[in-house]
Amino acid sequence: MHLRWLGCDFDRFAEEGEDITSLWVPTDKVKSGGWKPQVSSRTLDLLSYMRDFRGRIVAKGFESEVFYQNNPASKFGKLLPLFSWNLKTGEPERVTTDDRIFRKLLLAFQVFLSEHEFGNVRLVDLLPSNGRVGELRGRRASEIRTVMGRDGEYTPLAMVSDITPHSTRASVVRNYLNYLPPEVIGKFITGQTSQTVYYYATLHDDDYEAFKDAHRAAHQSNMAPIVEMRPEQTAIADTKSSALVRAFGEDKKKALTAMGCVALGEEGLDKGLDAVIEQPLLAFNKTHICAYNNICPPSIVGEGIEMRCAICPYAIRALDHLPAITACMRGIIERLGKLTQQLGNKEGKYAEGDLDAINTERDRLAEDLAGWAISEHELWREYKRRKDGMGMTASERWIGMEPEIIKRKFSREAFPSEQVEYLLARLAEDVSFPLFTSQEVQTQFDYLKMRILVLEGRALELLASRMPLDVDPAAELRSMVKSFMDARGLSHPEVVGVLSAPIEEILGSLESGQNLLRMLEEDDAECAE
User: Fold this and answer.
1) pLDDT for residue 480
2) What string of H, E and C letters represents the secondary structure of 441-492?
3) What is the mean pLDDT of the chain?
């Protein structure tokens, strides 16, 4: 529906020269205005081609703006449709359902997959139509309609598919839920609220309740570092005693295979993996092994990616790097969100040079995120393979080379999306990987601290900054959360519920809040005297 009603100004917010940019969609079933999903620049190229084609059509109706769905009371007003079809009115084609068009799209994609050797993927079938739309399957021979043609009788066929636009959207949403919070999916991909994102996943996934249960269990286990005040028992890849460092100290070549190492690079070229074997000094970092001991070689400096480990072909990722990589990716997503917010509120706020700097930083972070995401995807596939019993050979196990992560419980479940639960999960993750706690999320830690102080009757401490400079804010907050849970005997779901309550409700119902308001009033009275 909204694709058919795209306007000719679809690129009004597009950024020239960007690989990923904004598409302007002027209509929506829920929103009162347009929205801007992030799409490939190739999408805009194709739409520009359509706009040029439209401009060659001489028709009076194509020159005029029309009301959305020909409704003068539409909240979207008038627009110039990109896909005008009616020569007199300029409206897009009116169809009672988009299924017919969607099946044609599926057929074209099926041909594409076949021509590019993706195998014999069947997305649509040709079945006797019997001349009745919507009743295309299960016809008995006596019911199949035949038509007399020039060369004799034949049976009209119609395209039919079990795939629908709705199920397609649901599968896309569910896939993204493995990596991104619903807010990110809704804001940058589907244009929906987080509730609607969950709605699409629920409708078509019978196992979604089990999916959510697994998420809850994973998030609850994430609280262990807070509850037990110790680093999470996850794989560590940068200490001398780690399985990864010991394996490379014994035999680099065997370690590359046994520890599940991958590297970015052109297909068929393993220069990063080769360099690890050839170079005498390696640097073991949280997220990767540097083949050049954290000193970029001239070739990398020449390419302009100095210290860009996320996209460096000489940064080797092993299975034991997975937890750190996921933490690193979350920190990047938080920073990207902040920069995108700055760009969205740029009216008269930033000089042009500042905007260029923000755009440059956002592009850099997006490239880094893509680099880490590719590595994470490949490592996760290898992790699943090992867990499914398709891992190392007997000889590799015999020499004692096995990733530490294989012995641990590691989950790729989606990170929680609700604010308090997300912050608690990030707070726990900070125990093992403080380097990847972004400034944006550190600032939000104050949000939790404020709530706990009010709930504990220590609200006046909000009016004074007493924290010593040498105290880690995240460590202090972890201690506060643990004490808060211990004193009240709260479980993980319970503490999330308590800390998620509206602040007005907390201040209105708790004695500490009432005392705070009373003391503030007394202070005001003293000042007035």
Assistant:
1) 84
2) HHHHHHHHHHHHHHHCCCHHHHHCCCCCCCCCHHHHHHHHHHHHHHHHCCCH
3) 75
